[in-house]
Design goal:
By secondary structure, the chain is mainly alpha-helical. It is built from four helices and two strands, in the order ααβαβα. The protein folds into two domains: 1-61, no CATH class; 66-98. It has helices at residues 3-23, 31-43, 52-55, 66-91; strands at 47-49, 63-65. The N and C termini lie far apart (49 Å).
């Protein structure tokens, strides 16, 4: 079986397992959220979202609130900017590289 089909099958099985377990508890998860969550679980990723309400229904799924991501990116962006400024100053180039 080609790798893509094997992965798609494994994702579908994981999503079906999650859906079945949650349905037994009368919990309904929208298909798009279920597929996103199952994919993240399969790959070992966290899901970054503004609306954690639906994804919290998926057991074992790690969530990151987008506001936290925005803060991390802002800090990274500022640190990256400082690095560029330091590099420009070190090699004598104007700040046009920033």
């Amino acid at each position: 079986m080609p790798r893509r089909l094997r992965v798609a099958l494994e994702l579908a099985q994981l999503a079906g397992k999650i859906e079945g377990e949650q349905a037994a508890k009368s919990v309904v998860i929208a298909l798009p959220d279920l597929l996103i969550g199952a994919t993240a679980l399969y790959l070992g990723y966290s899901v970054a979202t503004l609306d954690t309400r639906h994804f919290r229904l998926i057991p074992g799924l790690s969530l990151v609130h987008v506001e936290a991501v925005k803060q991390i990116l802002a800090e990274f962006s500022f640190a990256n900017h400082l690095c560029k400024v330091a590099m420009a100053a070190t090699i004598g180039h104007p700040l046009r590289y920033c």
